[in-house]
Each structure stands twice: as C-alpha cells, then as structure tokens.
Design brief:
The structure is a single chain. This protein has 427 residues and is α/β, with parallel strands linked by helices. 30% of the residues lie in helices and 20% in strands. It has 13 helices and 17 strands. The protein has a 7-stranded mixed beta sheet. The chain has a 6-stranded mixed beta sheet with strand order 14-13-12-15-16-17, with helices on both faces. Helix 5 runs parallel beside helix 6. It is globular and about 65 Å long.
Length: 427
C-alpha cells in the first residue's frame, strides 16, 4: 500500500528555496521502526517515498516527502538502553560535562528526545536536577519508571514557554540524534532560545554528513531523519537564532558523528575553537559547498546495492544459511532498498523484547531472541547495526565454534571471521 505524496515544488525547510537537486532516491518504503505484530502480518503496510534532496542555497540535505512526527512516534519501538556501548557513551558524556563545564547539583539540565532515560539516569546519580522531553509514550513511560522526570510532548516554541514556566531556565540543554528528527527545525531552535539561560550551553550530537557520504552510509537515511547535516548547514541554522557553535568534537557514534557545543552569541565566555574552523575548512575543500559534489552519491549507493546482492546470491547458491543480528531502523532501509527478505535471511534477532516475536517492516523477516542464533547455527550472521559491529561480534563470537562468520554491509559488503575484536563499537 503506497502512500501517494506529491513531490512537486518541494521547498527547503531551512531557507525556502525550491528543492530540485536529488541526493539519493531509495524508492518507497514503510516506516523503519514500524515493527509488525503477528496479527497484522497480512494487513499490508503504507509505503512513503524516501527521496532525499540537497538545497542549492544552504546545502542542507533533507527528505522530500515528510511523514508526520505524530505518525512516526505513535508506537515507537527504539529503546536506547539496549546498547551497552551507547550507555557507556552516555555515562562518559555526563562525566565530561561535570568535569569540564562545571555542571553540578546547582545546575539544571534538560535533554530533548530523552528516550528511556538512558542518559539522564547518570545525572540523577550525581544529584543534578534534570528533566527530559520525549514525545513517544512507549519510551517516555520507561523513563518515568526509572524515576526520570519526563514531559511527553514535542519540543518547540510553545512547549518551551510552558516548560520554562513549570521548571526554570536551563544551564545545559542536550540532544543526541534529535536535530535530524525535527521537521520544523526553526520552531525547534526557537524553543531553545526560550529555554536556555543567558550563560547556558547546549550540546547536540548527530551523524556527520561527511561520514555518510564518504562511507556510503545510505541506510542511515529513513523517514525519521528529515535532515542530514554538514557543520556548515547546522551552523547557519543556529546562527539565525542568535547562537554560535563554539566547539565541535568528532565522535565514532553512528558510523561517524559530531557533537556541537552551542551558546548564545552574547556569551563572551565561549570562544570559537580551532576545531570548528578546521571542520568548516575540510567541508569546503571537499566540496560540501558545491552542488555538483552531491550528485555522485546516488551512483555509489546503487553500486553498493549490487555488490551486496552479488555476495548474498553467491553464498546462497552455495547452500549457505544467513541470519541477521539486530532490528535497527538503518537495517530496514537497507533490506527494503536492496529487496532482501526471507529468501536471503531466515530471521534476525534483537535484545529488545519489544521487538521480539514481531516482524521487520517491509521485508517481514521474523525477529527472535539472540539465543536463536545458537539454536540455528547459521553459516553467516548479517550485522544490520554495523556501527555496533565490534560489540556484536564480541557478544556472538561463539559462532566460530561451528565455522560461522559475519557479513558487514557498510561501507562495502564483506565477510569477517568470528573472533574477539579490539575496542568497543559505539552506537
């Protein structure tokens, strides 16, 4: 069941310029986190165009057809706490903000898109006042069950007014992987203007467009992600609201992210670091301010698809069995774009009990508990959340006992042996 959306005269959600330059066209797919209940298996699913454009004026990469956030988050199945490495990332962030930015029990912390309280729980341990903003009932309730004060609302100007009146202005506002999820970005940043104290700071993490392009991470494109940011693009948005990005850190989360540090322009305590200047320079040199630069990405995506299918067909023709690990949103983009179903992958597994005994959207691949791998003893485990490959390979290296190996799809399809790997993959 394909949802018809007119793709004519689409305007940039930042500057209003008509979007005419295609970045990636992944066809039409269902919502990536719309996990299917067994009783709904034969009812069909809506599909929405997944076509991404780049604005020739502000170089903001964005989806063309916009699915309402109310639809996307009505029954949200993604819980942040099921990744050990992501919890460790959150814990280290809290320690950093306490150690370097003097966030203490006299401070007030707000997290936008706080999910199941995965991060704010560490501020709670330090007795630092806080609350979270989370629009999805399923994960908001999980946070409340942990004792994390949580407001179940979408954030914007109107929300910010009521939250500031109910609580107080914030010394620290943070948001991990939220900027991409907000269709009305100026209403969102306008809300930050209202809620942030004069001397307060903000941090936001998001996948860096440079990493997406260079490593062909097309599977990070899905309907929840309205935007795909370069530092140039996000800087222009915050600048228009009286903010400055005074520092930036490069992270290995989500296959390559950046964390921006933001304050009001009037905050003279915060000087713009060399990191900001360096990354802006790198983006300019590599072509991120040149519209022609963006036109080659779709060809690279199509080639990766052909290479992945060739590998899978080769192994299936040998009689090999393949199962998946994980049920992430990115995995569903990859499976549906490449046309991979149970003809290639018998099932997948996930630690999240909210996904187990359900089916992936579109491909309808069944989802089981991780123990199912030991029972099935497959020849290959296809790691769908490839950004967590080290963590997953270490957890499941037992597949080597029967000669099992791993398939990693990004940045190029490859087979890897089952062995302990150094380091911990970060969410």
């Amino acid at each position: 069941m394909r949802e018809n959306n007119t793709l004519q005269d689409i305007e940039c959600r930042n500057c209003g310029k008509e979007l005419i330059h295609s970045f990636a066209d992944l066809g039409a797919t269902p919502l990536c986190n719309e996990i299917i209940n067994p009783e709904e298996l034969n009812r069909g699913q809506k599909e929405y165009p997944l076509h991404v454009y780049v604005c020739e004026e502000c170089f903001l990469v964005q989806v063309g057809a916009c699915v309402s956030p109310e639809v996307i988050y009505s029954d949200y199945s993604y819980f942040s706490s099921y990744s050990d490495s992501w919890l460790d990332h959150a814990r280290r962030y809290v320690d950093t903000m306490i150690g370097l930015y003097n966030i203490n029990p006299n401070s007030f912390v707000v997290e936008i898109a706080s999910n199941d309280g995965y991060l704010l729980q560490y501020f709670k341990e330090k007795n630092i006042p806080h609350f979270g903003v989370e629009p999805s009932n399923t994960v908001a309730q999980a946070a409340l069950n942990k004792g994390i004060p949580t407001e179940e609302v979408f954030f914007g100007k109107q929300t910010a007014d009521s939250l500031r009146e109910k609580y107080q202005e914030a010394d620290l506002i943070l948001g991990n992987n939220v900027l991409a999820h907000v269709p009305n970005i100026h209403d969102f940043v306008g809300g930050l203007e209202i809620l942030l104290g004069d001397k307060g700071i903000m941090t936001f993490e998001f996948p860096h467009l440079m990493q997406l392009v260079e490593n062909i991470q097309f599977d990070t494109i899905y309907h929840e992600h309205f935007f795909y940011y370069s530092l140039h693009a996000v800087q222009s948005i915050f600048k228009s609201h009286g903010f400055k990005i005074f520092d930036v850190q490069e992270l290995n989360t989500h296959g390559g992210s950046i964390r921006i540090f933001v304050s009001r322009k009037t905050n003279t305590q915060r000087k713009i670091s060399d990191n900001v200047k360096r990354i802006l320079h790198d983006e300019k040199v590599k072509g991120y301010l040149n519209i022609e630069f963006y036109t080659t990405f779709n060809k690279n995506v199509q080639q990766l698809k052909r290479d992945l299918l060739s590998l899978l067909i080769q192994e299936k023709n040998k009689g090999k069995s393949i199962v998946g690990y994980g049920a992430p949103g990115k995995g569903n983009t990859l499976l549906n774009f490449c046309g991979i179903g149970t003809d290639f992958m018998d099932f997948t597994v996930d630690r999240n009990p909210h996904k187990q005994d359900h089916f992936l959207p579109g491909s309808l691949i069944p989802i089981y508990q991780p123990e199912k791998i030991m029972e099935a003893k497959p020849d290959y485990v296809f790691i769908l959340p490839w950004n967590l490959k080290r963590e997953i390979m270490n957890q499941t290296n037992y597949i080597g006992e029967w000669g099992g190996k791993f398939i990693i799809p990004i940045p190029y399809p490859r087979i890897m042996p089952a062995q302990k790997v150094k380091g911990v993959g970060v969410h």
